[in-house]
Structure formats: structure tokens, C-alpha cells
Write a structure and sequence with these properties.
Layout (H helix, E strand, L loop, with lengths): L5 H8 L19 E6 L8 H15 L3 E6 L3 H4 L14 H18 L5 E5 L1 H4 L4 H7 L6 H5 L2 H7 L8 H4 L1 H16 L3 E5 L3 H15 L4 E5 L13 E2 L2 E2 L9 H9 L6 H8 L4 H13 L5 H15 L1 H15 L9 H11 L1 E4 L5 H7 L6 H9 L3 E3 L2 E2 L16 E6 L3 E7 L1
Parallel strand pairs: 1-2, 1-4, 2-3, 4-5, 8-12
Antiparallel strand pairs: 6-7, 9-10, 9-11, 11-12
Helix pairs in contact: 10-11, 12-15, 12-16, 13-15, 15-16, 16-17, 18-19
Length: 418
């Protein structure tokens, strides 16, 4: 089957929201140069950013030229849109640190793709304030800025107010587009739907300053089909791409535990699955939804994109061992290292009494309680219930230097045996 055109691909995957293009098939003509930007307001992108990043990959795959912007300047102010109160400013040192991390994530998400990398601090740091007001601010109508919904909300009698810095954010971002239009031949900005207002400011600024036309392409906000809330939130907070904030195991489990209702949409947005592959996968999934084959495919593919194929294989193996009956003996040293972050890691010497290990690993509060657990057959070693006669961990229990102890259904720890 012949490959779809980009406009068709974006429609099929659900990446069409608002655009200034008169006809979306304009994307199917000659290559354009576009940009996408992320502010370093945190040390990592989230799965919300990842949705737009996946859309950007399709633009690149169809021959369009990407400029990826890191908001070293805009990050120092912070986007006020959607915020009910003034942001607490990050320090320059924090922003510098966050920039390094975001750039690393750009390089992971777009590995193998060609793109330009720019930092808007490079053109703002030497900008004269008076020149900026004359050459840029003069072309930004106050009515346009005042009409923004978040500005109206913040300026209401019961609102928190807004500083000149945050009020000016749209002007700053608009100048990014003007600068890239003039200096880098960028004619389109792509974004999530929540950035539409800021992007329109750039299009209007380009028209007023140069008399020329530029465009925006926005993707819809991804919502959790079950809760109706913004996708990518868990009880613990946002799902981050940085494993220091969301471990690789937690990341995999997030995708694995998604409900059935939105799974087709998530597969289209967050993986590179083809139309034919998706049809076959959903057919198998609908024949037996209890298999969760669609969630397993999604979890593996997204984890592979963000954390690499080796770690994706590792967390898949761990999940299959813990929940699907795969043999514990198949766990590797790397698997145990990943799992240690989730279950907790304790050290012990061989020959130590099991009751003592249960207390040390906090699976029991005392040796008396530990012995009760053992007598009640409530203790498992590497998934297997242990006989009453067993009082210590033996050589045969060890897998690559480790043992997984479980008490009851859910309390598990890893014991490293010296």
C-alpha cells in the first residue's frame, strides 16, 4: 500500500487542531522549514511534550526541515497561560541546568533525524531594550494582548493580577518566530493547542513587521479518555521523560495500565505504528482484551523511544516475571538494578536466618511476626512459596546475585546476597 501524504497521516493520527493554513494539503507540497520550542521550566519534558514531539517526527519524516528551540530566554520568565497565579522565577543556574537536560531529550527523541538546535537566549541576551520596544513592541497591539483569556482572568477583581514580565511573554515568544523567520527562513511554528495564542502573536508580528505570511500548526491536547483530564497525570503527578523523576519501570507501567477506551488514540499518537499494523493489533486485542496486547505494545514502543530498546526489553521482562508468570531465572543483573529502585534493595550474607532478613528488609516488624509469616506460608522466594522447613536463603535461590522476597500479595523487596 502506498504511503499516506503528511496531511492524511496527521489527520489519521489525530494531530489536527487549529492551523492558519487555508488548506491542510499545503503540507503535501514543497518542503517547509518549521520550528517547535520547549521552555526549560523543569528539568524534563513530560508525556504531554512527547505527543507534540511525535508529531514533529512525522513532519521530519515527510521531508520538512525542523528547527528545535530551547527557551533559554522565555524560560527565565515562564509562560503564564493557564496559570492562575504568578510563577515563581527560576534562577539562571536552574535554567542552565534544565536546558542541558531538555537538549539531551531532544537528541534522544529525534535520534537519526536532521534538525537545527537553537536557544532564544542567544538573540535576546544582546538585545537593547529601547530597540526592542521600537522595533518589536511598537508592532504588538495592546488590544490583542489584553484579550487573552488568562490575562482577563488574572485581572478580574478576584484574580491574582499579572506582572509586566508575564504579560510580555507572548511578545517575547512572538519575537522568536520573527527572528527565526528572518534569520533561519522558518515559515511555520508547530505547537500544542495550549500555545495557540502565543503563536498567533508571532504570526501577527511577522505580518506587521515584514508584510509577509507565516503559519501555525497546532495539535489537540491529549486527554485521558476515562477521566477527561489532561493526559499524562498520575496520582504521583506528571509522567516525566527523565528517569530521575519517573523511573523507567514506572514509565512502562503507566502505559501498561491505561484503560481500553483510549488505547487506539494513544497508539496513533505515541508510536510509529502503521495503519495496517494497527488494524491487525486491534483485531487481536478485541478478540481478547484481557491479554492487554495493545497496552503491552504501547508500553514497549514508547519506552523504547524515550529510554532505548535495551531498557524497554528489561522493563518488559520484569513486568512479565512479576505479573505474567515468566520465570524469575530469566531476570538479568540490569533487570535487578532497575527493579531495585521500585522494590527497595537490602543486603545480607548467606546463611542468615530468613526471619532476620524479613525484619531487616521491613517485610516484618519483628522476628516473632516474621516467624508467623513463615509458619503461615505467606513468604515467597522468587515467586515460589517456600516450605516450612526452609530457614535460610541458599545458593539455589540466587539469581545473578539477587533474591526477590515477597510477603503476601504485594510486599516485595530485593535482597543482594554477599
Amino acid at each position: 500500500m502506498s504511503k499516506m501524504k503528511l496531511s492524511e497521516e496527521l489527520q489519521w493520527r489525530g494531530f489536527v487542531n487549529q492551523t492558519t493554513l487555508k488548506n491542510i494539503t499545503d503540507l503535501d507540497k514543497e518542503p517547509i522549514k518549521f520550528y517547535w520550542g520547549v521552555d526549560p521550566s523543569a528539568s524534563s519534558m513530560t508525556v504531554g511534550n512527547l505527543a507534540t514531539a511525535m508529531m514533529v517526527r512525522h513532519f521530519i519524516d515527510y521531508g520538512h526541515k525542523a528547527v528545535l528551540l530551547i527557551g533559554g530566554a522565555t524560560g527565565l520568565i515562564g509562560d503564564p497561560d493557564g496559570k492562575s497565579e504568578e510563577r515563581k522565577l527560576k534562577t539562571e543556574a536552574e535554567i542552565d541546568s534544565f536546558k542541558v537536560n531538555i537538549v539531551k531529550q531532544y537528541k534522544i527523541l529525534f535520534a537519526g533525524d536532521k534538525f537545527e538546535l537553537v536557544d532564544n537566549l542567544d538573540w535576546f541576551k544582546g538585545l537593547n531594550y529601547i530597540d526592542f520596544l521600537r522595533n518589536v513592541g511598537k508592532h504588538m497591539p495592546m488590544r490583542q494582548m489584553m484579550s487573552r483569556e488568562f490575562v482577563q482572568t488574572r485581572l478580574k477583581e478576584d484574580g491574582s493580577g499579572i506582572s509586566y514580565a508575564e504579560f510580555s511573554y507572548a511578545l517575547i515568544q512572538g519575537y522568536d518566530f520573527l527572528h527565526l523567520f528572518k534569520e533561519n527562513s522558518v515559515t511555520m511554528q508547530v505547537c500544542g493547542s495550549d500555545q495557540w495564542g502565543n503563536c498567533i502573536a508571532g504570526v501577527d508580528l511577522i505580518r506587521r513587521v515584514t508584510g509577509k505570511e507565516a503559519h501555525i500548526w497546532s495539535a489537540p491536547l491529549v486527554l485521558n479518555k476515562t477521566t477527561g483530564l489532561k493526559f499524562g497525570k498520575s496520582e504521583e503527578g506528571a509522567i516525566w521523560l527523565d528517569e530521575k523523576l519517573t523511573t523507567v519501570y514506572q514509565f512502562y507501567q503507566f502505559w501498561l495500565n491505561l484503560d481500553d477506551e483510549g488505547i487506539e488514540e494513544y497508539l496513533k499518537i505515541y508510536t510509529l505504528i502503521t495503519k495496517e499494523e494497527l488494524k491487525k493489533l486491534l483485531s487481536k486485542f478485541n478478540d481478547d482484551r484481557s491479554s492487554r496486547i495493545a497496552q503491552k505494545y504501547l508500553a514497549f514502543e514508547v519506552t523504547k523511544i524515550v529510554h532505548g530498546i535495551d531498557r524497554a526489553k528489561s522493563v518488559r521482562r520484569i513486568s512479565e516475571v512479576l505479573f505474567d508468570g515468566r520465570e524469575y531465572s530469566e531476570l538479568t543483573s540490569e533487570d535487578f538494578n532497575l527493579l531495585a529502585n521500585e522494590l527497595g534493595l537490602y543486603s545480607s550474607k548467606r546463611g542468615v536466618e530468613l526471619a532476620e532478613i524479613l525484619v531487616t528488609s521491613k517485610l516484618a516488624s519483628s522476628k516473632t511476626e516474621a516467624r508467623h509469616f513463615l509458619e503461615d506460608n505467606a513468604v515467597y522466594i522468587n515467586g515460589s512459596q517456600i516450605p516450612l522447613s526452609k530457614t535460610t536463603l541458599d545458593k539455589d535461590d540466587i539469581i545473578n546475585g539477587y533474591v526477590i522476597l515477597r510477603r503476601g500479595k504485594n510486599s516485595q523487596v530485593i535482597v543482594k546476597l554477599d
